[in-house]
């Protein structure tokens, strides 16, 4: 399993960061420009990654103010889990961490780990931007 992580500190309390992340409709704001055909509900999202794949994901697990896990609902190019964790820093800020776990063979790892890291970094930066 390949684990890709990106963390950011957001100037909002954990419950606000969690509330934003727990609604898949908000995730479109975190996506880079190579994501299109976005459709979402509170629990599910479908989108296309340019030159890569179509993905349909749904939130499979929520731990109030702590963690959100999303998994593919349709056959993905590889097994994948998208997890966000939020941790209250005790000073009105929150550390949000985006963890992508992907079951990649050597070839896929060489091709996909760079773009997946970029995606994770982009999403955490956008989260900080959007939530201020």
TrEMBL record:
Gene Ontology terms, MF aspect: glycosyltransferase activity
Q: Which domain of life is it from?
A: Bacteria
Q: Could you list this entry's UniProt keywords, alphabetically sorted.
A: Glycosyltransferase, Transferase
Matching entries from CDD domains are given as: SRPBCC
Looking up InterPro entries in the UniProt record yields: START-like_dom_sf
Per its record, how is this protein called by name?
Answer: Orotate phosphoribosyltransferase
């Amino acid at each position: 399993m390949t684990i890709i992580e990106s963390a950011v500190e957001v100037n909002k309390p954990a419950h606000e960061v969690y509330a934003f992340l727990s609604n898949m409709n908000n995730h479109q704001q975190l996506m880079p420009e190579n994501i299109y055909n976005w459709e979402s509900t509170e629990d599910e999202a479908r989108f296309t990654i340019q030159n890569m794949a179509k993905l349909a994901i749904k939130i499979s697990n929520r731990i109030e103010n702590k963690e959100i896990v999303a998994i593919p609902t349709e056959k993905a190019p590889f097994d994948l889990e998208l997890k966000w964790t939020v941790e209250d820093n005790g000073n009105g800020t929150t550390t949000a961490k985006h963890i992508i776990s992907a079951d990649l063979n050597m070839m896929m790892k060489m091709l996909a780990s760079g773009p997946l890291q970029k995606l994770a970094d982009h999403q955490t930066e956008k989260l900080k931007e959007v939530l201020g």
